[in-house]
Amino acid sequence: MSPARGRDESQRSPKWRGRREAIVDTSARLFARRGYHATGIAELCEANDLGKGALYHYIGSKEDLLAAIQDKVLEEVMAGAERVEHAGGAPSEQLAMLGQELLEVVHRLPDHVRVFLHELPALSGARATQFDERRRAYEERIEAVLRAGVRSGEFRDLDPWLTARAWLGMHNYTYLWLQSGGRLTAQDVATPFSEIFLAGIGRSAGERTG
To answer: Which of 4, 26, 45, 121 has the fewest beta carbons closer than 10 A?
Structure first.
């Protein structure tokens, strides 16, 4: 069970889970606009058309709600990483697929991603530690692909940790302008991003055979 979920959520009805999911999505939009700390329970109740007691019935606490938003992003991102791992391919192909998967999440959930990136410090105790570990697990997947590319000679001799953060920064902050229903799709951005990044870290054919 993830740290974001109530202890008995799996026992709840589909209707309850669907309503909670809607609350998570609506609240993500509110947190993205106003910030987590600046958003009070009264605003959350109004946005979700619920009284305080009913809201707490679904979310448990305000921090539980923030954790649920974080959890949704992490689950989507990690599911994409799993699909890439199962697909296999050369490191350059895997890096391109990882970018496509990540941008699909950003494109569909820009508000959730904004909250994910900016509000993690608001989580406390063991919950914060668990989310840090899960985020780090995703970062390590990127680093592993980069190390594999260096070993195979496909990528230049680079620092996987630093290069992974360059890659993440390039993709993560598209939430500022990559919006569902906008001019660009995730694929419109993923392809040139991959070409630009791989051109910077890849070895030329001559370098590979030299």
So the answer is: 121
